[in-house]
Amino acid sequence: MRAYFTASIVGRKFHLGNYQKIGEILRNHNVEVMDEHILKVSEKDIQMQSKDARLKFHQRLEDWVNSSDFLVAETSFPSISVGYEISMALDRGKPVLILYSEGDPPSLFAYHENEKIISEKYTPETLPAIIADFLQFVRGEADTRFTFFISSKQASYLAKQGKKNRVPKSVYLRSLIDRDMIK
Predict the structure, then answer these.
(1) Count of Cβ atoms closer than 10 Å to residue 108 Cβ
(2) What residue ranges in the chain does DSSP mark as E strands?
(3) How far apart are CA 73 and CA 65, in angstroms?
């Protein structure tokens, strides 16, 4: 499998460790990760490029998105470019995992009704399970994706329980269902 990773280049100075950890976890799941354009290019490098070089880079970016099986975006630091890349992937029918470690999810995608988007707040402890769940979904190993609306009070409770139990919200909900099935 092949993943396209994107994140804010400016945000790299605050979140580089998280960016690297995401790539490492994906690689540990035997996923080829295209992330060097984020990890090894500086903001100054981009600003110094000629118009032709920027256009060539944009074409490569489109090729990378097209050749990927899915996109992973770390969105803790806002970026219009990342939003554009997410939109491009969705337009091409690619599943997208939106990750953020602080604040709220990106407002344009957080409540978007598209079954290809999964948006999760993470901590270093929950990140491996979130990525593993997403890869199950992408690989078709997940039985069924089930989406429903909950009240803000329920969402708050779910977030607290996930944090308390150090698991993603989806893992917590599945554990409740499994527990009830045993009864």
Answers:
(1) 10
(2) 2-7, 32-34, 70-74, 96-100, 117-121
(3) 12
Domain residues of the chain, as ranges? Answer: 2-143, 148-183
- 142 CB-contact burial (10 Å; exposed 0-12 / middle 13-18 / buried 19+): middle
Cα-Cα end-to-end distance for the chain: 38
Fold of 2-143: Rossmann fold (3.40.50)
Question: Which pTM does this prediction carry?
Answer: 0.74
**Sheet strands side by side (includes 32-34):** 32-34, 2-7, 70-74, 96-100, 117-121
How many helices and strands in the chain, by DSSP H and E?
8, 5
| pLDDT of the chain, 183 residues: tens digit per residue | 999 999 998 888 899 999 999 999 999 999 999 988 887 776 666 666 677 877 887 788 889 999 999 999 999 998 888 989 999 999 999 999 999 998 777 766 666 667 788 889 999 999 999 999 999 889 885 555 566 777 778 888 888 888 887 777 877 888 888 888 888
C-alpha 71/C-alpha 43 separation (Å) is: 22
